[in-house]
Design goal:
With 434 residues, the chain is an alpha/beta fold. It folds into 2 domains: 2-226 and 409-425, Glycogen Phosphorylase B (Rossmann fold, 3-Layer(aba) Sandwich), CATH 3.40.50.2000; 230-407, Rossmann fold, CATH 3.40.50.2000. Helices cover 38% and strands 16% of the residues. The chain has 15 helices and 13 strands. The protein has helices spanning 20-28, 71-79, 98-110, 120-133, 149-159, 175-178, 184-200, 209-214, 253-273, 291-294, 310-318, 339-347, 360-368, 379-394, 410-425, and strands at 2-7, 34-41, 62-66, 138-143, 163-167, 203-206, 220-222, 243-248, 278-283, 301-305, 322-326, 350-355, 371-375. Strand 4, helix 5 (149-159) and strand 5 form a beta-alpha-beta unit. Helix 1 crosses helix 15 (410-425), helix 4 (120-133) packs across helix 5 (149-159) and helix 11 (310-318) packs across helix 12.
Length: 434
């Protein structure tokens, strides 16, 4: 069986979206004659902790962990122990303290490519040791954090390894950089090291064609995220007397105002129609719900579910009538494919979303028959989709998606990745990446 080395900052017990793509892919690689070794952090700056995900790591996979400095400790020493480190957004609000605004300003204007680069020294030493001791046909680095790709670049320059740079998001044009006015010097540094990675990698994998378009020249190929069918085996939809609308995910500042807009639309719909059996749930968004949200709900039942373990998220998605998808209204958002979109598809619940008029997400939703995605200003069409689904549910009609969606399952996607590895390393050869 051929082997490759995966270098990733995020790995269980890190929870949430960052770990899902590669946690799931590594499970199926041995079925395609590839055995991964995972090099990751021992105790990194993680947005969430989910110990149950450790049970999903294949016993065949060797996981090597290295220590890393944690900028969260410095961050909290300045702003307070209850302050969460920034993840997915670098935007501050009027209510934030001056210290927090200074901390975020420093991150935006003086750090390239990201703060987690402090892991790279330890990670490179460990990667070098692993490559010297084992026959690895390839190395894969995945980002964000995109600083991880610099480990692959350094290995490539020194050892001329077979190397794949895997992009789950854009780099220099990622939304939280595009939303901030970064100085030209730091922007030029980001673009230069991004260009070096793209030019040196044997292949650059992106999760969507429009993310690929945000990057410069390179040997690019699209291999999207996917859902793991095994996650859904134990869960079966059970209808209740509530029409359950659910949103799963973080609500940082860039996304919160869109969710509030949708909440207002649904509240207005329930009021005009005289409907009292709509239940609206936020899952994993808040430990404590802001008053700005609670004030908006009068005719719908609202519930907040703080961060929960992954299998419980799957159960919530399956046992829903409608799942909300919110794509950020920002530059270069046409290629945003949140991981939860694919778990939504796997749950077979109707997806109702808002986003750009043209996007990879809209195309996938249409292709799979999973729901509808409307532009941010298409309130009427959004509510028409909601009304149609609600009426079908009221009549007892089936509202679950019955279309074949296996093209976006992890086994299918993993086969595509394995074919890429075979092509890069030379099918049937015994050559090492060193």
């Amino acid at each position: 069986m051929k082997k490759f080395l995966l270098i990733t900052y995020y790995w269980p017990p890190c929870g949430g979206v960052p770990v899902q793509r590669w946690l799931k892919l590594t499970k199926y690689f041995p079925l395609n004659n590839w055995l991964p070794t995972v090099l990751t952090t021992q105790d990194g700056d993680y947005p969430y902790i989910d110990e149950t995900l450790l049970n999903e790591v294949s016993k065949d996979i060797n996981v090597v962990r290295t220590k890393t400095l944690k900028y969260s400790e410095m961050f909290k020493s300045v702003l307070g122990k209850d302050e969460k480190i920034p993840y997915g957004s670098l935007k501050t609000s009027k209510e934030d303290t001056i210290l927090k605004k200074i901390a975020y300003f420093t991150r935006v204007q003086f750090v390239s490519p990201d703060a987690r680069i402090i892991w790279n020294g330890q990670a490179y030493k460990a990667a070098e040791k692993l490559l010297m001791s084992g026959m690895y046909e390839s190395v894969i680095t995945t980002g964000p954090p995109h600083s991880t790709h610099l480990i692959g670049l350094k290995l490539k320059n020194k050892y001329d390894i077979n190397w794949i740079a895997d992009f789950r998001d854009p780099w220099s044009k990622i939304h939280y950089h595009e939303n901030e006015k970064r100085n030209l010097f730091i922007k030029s540094i980001d673009k230069q090291i991004e260009a070096n990675v793209l030019s040196k990698a044997n292949a650059v994998v992106t999760v969507s064609k429009r993310v690929s378009e945000t990057l410069g020249q390179g040997k690019k190929i699209v291999i999207p995220n996917a859902f793991d069918p095994d996650d859904f085996v134990m869960h079966q939809y059970k209808k209740t007397d509530k029409f359950r609308i659910k949103f799963v995910g973080a609500l940082f500042e860039d996304r919160k105002h869109l969710l509030l807009m949708i909440l207002d639309w649904i509240e207005e719909y329930a009021s005009k129609k005289g409907i009292d059996n709509i239940e609206f749930s936020l899952i994993g968004a808040f430990d404590r719900v802001p008053e700005s949200i609670l004030r908006r709900v009068e005719h719908i039942k609202f519930q907040n579910i703080p961060f929960i373990q992954h299998q419980n998220v799957i159960a919530e998605c399956v046992n829903s009538e409608l799942l909300l998808l919110v794509i950020l209204d920002t530059k270069n958002n046409e290629g945003i494919l949140t991981y939860k979109l694919f778990e939504y598809i796997g749950a077979k619940s109707f997806i109702l979303g808002i986003g750009p008029a043209v996007s990879d997400a809209r195309e996938i939703i249409n292709q799979t028959g999973a729901g509808t995605l409307h532009h941010y200003k298409e309130k009427k069409d959004f509510l028409q989709s909601l009304d149609t689904l609600y009426n079908k549910w009221q009549k007892g009609e089936n509202i679950k998606n019955e279309k074949d969606v296996r093209d976006y399952s992890v086994p299918t996607i993993c086969k595509r990745y394995s074919d890429l590895l075979n092509a890069i390393c030379g099918i049937g050869t015994q050559a090492s990446c060193l």
